[in-house]
Amino acid sequence: MAAAGAGGDTPQQGDGPGKAAPKATLLPEEPPQEQALRRSAEELRQEYRLSVCSKLCYAIGGAPNQVATSATAFFLQIYLLDIAHITPFHASLVLFIGKAWGAVTDPVAGFFISKSKWTKIGRLMPWMLGCTPFTIVSYFFMWYLPPFVAGRVMWYLTFYCLFQALTTLFQVPYSALTMFLSPDQKERDSATAYRMMVEVLGTLMGAALHGQIVASAHAPDRCTLNLTINAADSSSSVSNAPNLAEPLGLQSHGREVYMIAAGVIGGVYLFGIVILFIGVKERDDPYALNSDKAIPFFKGLRLTMKYSPYLKLTASFLLISTAVQLEQSNFVLFCTHAAGLHNHFQYLVVTILVSAAVSIPFWQWFLQQFGKKSAACGISWMIPFAVMLVTIPNLVLAYVVAFVSGLSIAASLLLPWSMLPDVVDHFRLLNPHAKGPETIFYSSYVFFTKMSAGIGLGISAASLEKTSLCVLMTTYGELITNRITVN
Description:
Layout: H1 2-26, H2 32-47, H3 52-82, H4 88-115, H5 125-142, H6 152-176, H7 185-214, H8 220-234, H9 248-279, H10 297-305, H11 308-338, H12 345-370, H13 382-391, H14 395-430, H15 438-486
Helix pairs in contact: 3-7, 3-9, 3-11, 4-6, 4-15, 5-6, 5-9, 6-15, 7-9, 7-12, 7-14, 8-15, 11-14, 11-15, 12-14, 13-14
């Protein structure tokens, strides 16, 4: 029985390997062409893979622009009012024209960059290297208090416009550089994630570093004096009537701390561009064929403006960017003057940006789980809390608003820059022979965002002339009356 059983099992065991053997022999027998293609694809994947060092260098290279932009967004308005003694109307004029000028330079920068030729260091890198020294100079003089009074408005308007134009010449090629780091979508997404995290940290660094340096220039006793000076300026033209004399010590201290802050951020610019140049390699357009010619700028612009997904994306985040920048610029001013939180304004700014930085991983997870469109709801979280702060101004609520605002700002930063590469990729699939449309997409997007933010910020700042300034003067007038009565 055992022998029979063994003999009966033998054919089954022999049949089993006999049937499996052909399958085993078929798997390795891959056509030589497919094997070569597979090896070639793997080699290309290894070649286009970005190291962690390259991603960090790319992210750090864009941080200085975020540092300077954050400091400007949070503190330029209060600097013009408290240190330069420019009236709210003229301050709004400087902010609006500067933003509008920066927006106009976006398509102009896109035009010239699209015409530039390939060099040994790339097509985009020379623009970033060339404009950085001039950006540092314009940023420093934007925070310099000139000894004359009559031409201060023109002084700040000139250097603010120059700074906006130069940051555009850096930001447009830097943003488009994402598409030329690697043709691998996963590598580009990873580099974008590094960039967003470092940009949020750069925004935090700009507000925190600048805020800590200049905090002593906005003491409560200075606010009372500055309101009196600005009130006198409101009844006369800045270009024809001098400001009231401010104590020399206060004026000198405010000028010095703002110049120190400008010098520190100028050093950050130098560090960032050196890291970017050393650690990042720009590749020639890996998506177009060698026979393809660069798409003419105006033809590409027409195609861009007719591309429905891009128009929807731009229109959505145009309004979102306006709201976020309005809240970002006026939150510090409101807490300093209207809510009486003079000693906490720099900590409120830090709270906003720490909240934004730590919530980036959460929003990245949310995007992957629920989609990018669903994450847009997080941008509106700050609205009810901001309304509560206006109606019930107190310290605890101010910190709650700062934290929730950071969550909304993080979503507004991550969403557009994670969706724009998807839109560009889809456009390239529909137009495979259109070489070099990336700078057109990025410059156009930044143009609409800046224009909308400039209009909203100008309207908001101009409203201080007839509403907020009157309320603040009444409040401090009562405070002065109480002090006189006590004395």
